[in-house]
Amino acid sequence: MMRYKLTAVLMAAAMITPWAAQAEEAHVAPITDYVKANVAPWIKDPAVIDAIKAQNAKTAGLSAADIDALDKAWRAEVDGGDRKMIDEVLGNAASKFLHEKQEASEGVISEIFVMDAKGLNVGQSDVTSDYWQGDEDKFQKSFGAGAEGFFVDEVEKDESTQALQSQASMTIVDESGAPIGAVTIGINLDAL
Which of 22, 51, 73, 158 is the most exposed place for a label (fewest CB within 10 A)? Predict the structure, then answer.
């Protein structure tokens, strides 16, 4: 008797799962279309490419311990410490460029941040909670996937704004097509 109940539950789950998966993935196509039409053209701007290249030159020799120390320092600043690192990144030309692009999106883009080849923040429109993104899907499924890397994350509700949002991440390449970093764009689905 137990075997029949389990079979019935598994069959019901199999019928529900494709529908749930389709509903879960419904956000991917409109986000992909928006990012490719509205972000891909300007992410190749010299303000972004040059900033990534410069940071890649500075961070190339960093060890895992060095990266961990930088991330811990950033997190301490986020939690209310001295904001030297944060202010340096937010004040650079790449961050100013990204902030302008976010403002021009009329609420569709909730955040933008660019990472170097190690997954460290290069520029951002707003403060991120951490400095190193290299251990997260947004970096691993974009930069880690190569020159064509593109990843749209799950939909989440932003606690501060109550808006539904998702993040799209893609690899950034240099003029030769070699991957040099990645960008993550927060998309406000309510505004899209």
Answer: 22
Rounded CA gap, 12 and 14, in Å? 5
Q: H helices within the chain, ranges in order?
A: 2-25, 28-38, 46-59, 64-78, 84-90, 93-104, 137-140
Q: Model confidence over 48-84: pLDDT tens digits?
A: 999 999 999 999 999 999 999 999 999 999 888 689 9
How is residue 168 written in tokens? Answer: 């799209």
d(CA 147, CA 144): 9
In angstroms, the CA 158 to CA 44 distance is 29
Was domain 27-188 assigned CATH 3.40.1010.20?
no
Q: Domain-by-domain residue ranges, the chain?
A: 27-188
Q: How many residues does the chain have?
A: 192
pTM of the predicted model, to two decimals?
Answer: 0.84
Nearest to 119 by CA among 176, 62, 38: 62
Beta bridge partners of 169: 151, 184
pLDDT in tens, 133-177: 999 999 999 999 999 999 999 988 876 667 788 999 999 999 999
